[in-house]
Amino acid sequence: MNALAATNRNFRQAARILGLDSKIEKSLLIPFREIKVECTIPKDDGSLVSFVGFRVQHDNARGPMKGGIRYHPEVDPDEVNALAQLMTWKTAVADIPYGGAKGGIGCTPKDLTTSELERLTRVFTQKIHDLIGVNTDVPAPDMGTNAQTMAWILDEYSKFHGYSPAIVTGKPIDLGGSLGREAATGRGVVFATEALLAEYGKSIKDMTFAIQGFGNVGSWAAKLIHERGGKVVAVSDITGALKNPNGIDIPGLLAHKDKTGKLANFSGGDALDPNELLVHECDVLIPCALGGVLNRENADDVKAKFIIEAANHPTDPEADEILSKKGVIILPDIYANAGGVTVSYFEWVQNIQGFMWDEEKINNELNKYMTKSFHNIKNLCQTHNCNLRMGAFTLGLNRVARATLLRGWEA
């Protein structure tokens, strides 16, 4: 099942639990605006090449729309639509004053030079600059984009609208980016994990972890888990996978990957088939890579007792059912990976105020938001007698529906 179908299915289930009126249900499901643009740029050799860019603005009942821009060959309207909708529920679950959006360009970043990526980013910004804005739609980095990409968007947007640092988040610190932003999603995953384990009388130091994906989110999660005494027994990324039942030396692995660019040949662990990572023996599984990795083919073989969804939509609905029957506790993506957008919100606030916070304040505020959101989700799970995914979806939907009705849009 693709990401859009799965997201719509979760949405409808939550709408039924809440008893939402069919008119409001339909209005919440339909995106506010879908944008598709052609981006033609000259390559370094002088030849012209065209890419298709998308921006889906899903909902703005609770505030400006917010969401990442990804550069990836598989970017398509369905995926962008699903991720924009997930951002609407995620910002509502985190209780930050945003709606949801998502964007992307169908390209392979590693096949483009830095100057080609800059030209592509600037052309994309030229095509959508009048549809985004500090109080309208605030982009951020996602897969295949980074702080430099945001710097180019900020610069290009500012040519039309004057210097506007709050137009994007995830910027370089020198251009008004926030301290703590780089680690935010991974740190939020760890705060979410601590909140969940506390419900079961456990802590990170008591548990073993397997982490799929060792990019920004996975590596920060691994580092912070290791610092808290947790034992990371397996990790994987696109370069390979490794395991060590006694726990991997995460600082050593980070240094090795920094030096070699890959996980392979690290002396502190044995090679592992990357496909085995998801079914590896562990207490807590953290998928931090692509969506749909847990499906009906492998769900039966998952050995973890807890799954923390650091990736967007890593668990197919069929896998959800299988895992639930097995008693696996799943912490859903719309809550578990909300640390990134929460610190993006802090960055936006700092830019608007023109006043920067120190990193300790940011991390403390993030912990407060993640912990409070978890308890709000748990309360709804008890109210509606549902699992954590439906607890999160009902929390998000209810907040957006209330804002929509209060603004009088049901007419």
UniProtKB/TrEMBL annotation:
* Family matches, as CDD domains: NAD_bind_1_Glu_DH
SUPFAM superfamilies for this protein: Aminoacid dehydrogenase-like, N-terminal domain, NAD(P)-binding Rossmann-fold domains
Q: Name one Pfam family in it.
A: ELFV_dehydrog
Q: Where is the site Important for catalysis?
A: D142
Task: Report the residue ranges that make up the Glutamate/phenylalanine/leucine/valine/L-tryptophan dehydrogenase C-terminal domain in this protein.
Answer: 178-408
**GO MF annotation terms:** glutamate dehydrogenase [NAD(P)+] activity
The keyword Ubl conjugation belongs to this UniProt entry's keyword annotation? no
What PROSITE patterns has UniProt attached to this entry?
GLFV_DEHYDROGENASE
- SMART domains, per the entry: ELFV_dehydrog
* Active site as annotated: K102
* Superkingdom of origin organism: Eukaryota
- Keywords per UniProt: NAD, Nucleotide-binding, Oxidoreductase
Keyword Oxidoreductase (UniProt): yes
The reaction(s) catalysed by this protein are:
L-glutamate + NAD(+) + H2O = 2-oxoglutarate + NH4(+) + NADH + H(+); L-glutamate + NADP(+) + H2O = 2-oxoglutarate + NH4(+) + NADPH + H(+)
Give the residues the record marks as binding substrate. Answer: K66, K90, S344
**Binding-site residues for NAD(+), renumbered to this chain:** T185, N216
Give the UniProt family note: Belongs to the Glu/Leu/Phe/Val dehydrogenases family.
* Protein's name according to its UniProt entry: Glutamate dehydrogenase
Q: Which organism is it from?
A: Cinchona calisaya
